[in-house]
Amino acid sequence: MTDIDQRTRQAWEQASTKHVREYDELLAEARTADLFPVERELLDPILRTGPRVVHPQSGHGIDDVALVRAGAVAVVGLDYSTTAVGAAQRRADELGVPCRYLVAVLPSTPLADGCADLVYTGKGALNWLGDLTAWAREMARLLRPGGHLFVHEAHPLVPVFSWDADEPRVRADRGYFAEKHVNDTFPGHGAVERQHTLAQTVMAVLDAGLELVDLREHPEPFWRPDGVDAAVWDGRLPNTYSLLARRS
Ligand SMILES: C[S@@+](CC[C@H](N)C(=O)[O-])C[C@H]1O[C@@H](n2cnc3c(N)ncnc32)[C@H](O)[C@@H]1O
């Protein structure tokens, strides 16, 4: 890991203590949590087949409970925060859902070739990875032939927009084609976000040998921090995208 990535990992380790502090709230949330409607639309046909799911960068793991409720037979969550992995495992055990959590430093994973029918990731995941080519190859390796990769992620334009309430502005300190920037929201603590354009992301997936099934851009963000009401969320600009790809 580079020094930057090491510092970012420490930031996530520190920030993930939130999952422990807010354990009870997250447990209550997990009991009723669902995926976003667009995720259900794209994934329901796959989830109905009872897939084995791998969830890289699983964080608090709330989505894993939703994936099981929607049909997944088992979920393996991977995250480099030992705190996040511990809290997610405790929650899954308490809920009695078939989710198992492992510490892993992406883009490497400790899992076998073809172990997944579905790799599910996003919601603040790809922006921590410097090498999307290596990431996409690893995701393809995890999939069995015919398996799917699904990403629901912040649109790469998001770092460029301000969160002003009156109107969206292009931040003077950011650029769409920049390689990285220092995170100033969550997890903070000097974490460095990597930037990948939409084209770079799609090309990494295609170059890994996956075929594109669906790609959509959405106006809704996946996360609205408390107390923020940004004009950039008023429906005119992209805040997220969904990508579904298949291993042939
Ligand atoms: C925004 S959070 C969680 C995203 C998750 N999809 C969710 O909705 O809860 C991003 C997670 O990625 C993890 N992470 C970041 N870089 C990583 C890496 N290189 N390897 C493994 N985990 C990583 C962090 O520890 C953090 O838990």
TrEMBL record:
One of its GO terms (biological process) is methylation. This is Methyltransferase domain-containing protein. CDD domains: AdoMet_MTases (cd02440). GO terms for molecular function: S-adenosylmethionine-dependent methyltransferase activity. Keywords: Methyltransferase, Transferase. InterPro entries: Methyltransf_11, SAM-dependent_MTases_sf. Residues 59-151 form the Methyltransferase type domain. Pfam families: Methyltransf_11.
